[in-house]
Prior knowledge:
The chain is mainly α. It is 77% helix and 0% strand. It has one domain (9-115). The protein is built from 6 helices and no strands. Keywords: Membrane, Transmembrane, Transmembrane helix.
Amino acid sequence: MARIEISAPLARRIRRLARVSALLWNASAFLFALGVGLRDPALPIFLLLIIPIGGSGLAWRWEGIGGAVIMIGAFLLAAGGFSPAGRMKIIALFMIGVPYLIIGKLFLICWWLTRMLPES
Length: 120
């Protein structure tokens, strides 16, 4: 297996990718929730969005904590979206949970890379 050299530019690129992805996905989730409204039966799922969105805010300062909160929120969203999805359960899992899992993993990778960087 090839060894990847851990460097500050690599960590910065991953951090930037995680932040931009979080901003875009949070904005799209917010607009979707705004369009659906508060009387929709899917309101509990939209309330679960508070967890990964809050985790995204935490991850801007503390990548490890924020990434973990985002991933926990992604699992909760996937579980919450699984039961009312009807026949489209797999699509619901991928649309609701997987993007936040990827974003949380990116923040955790960035946190791990910055911890592994040699002290300068």
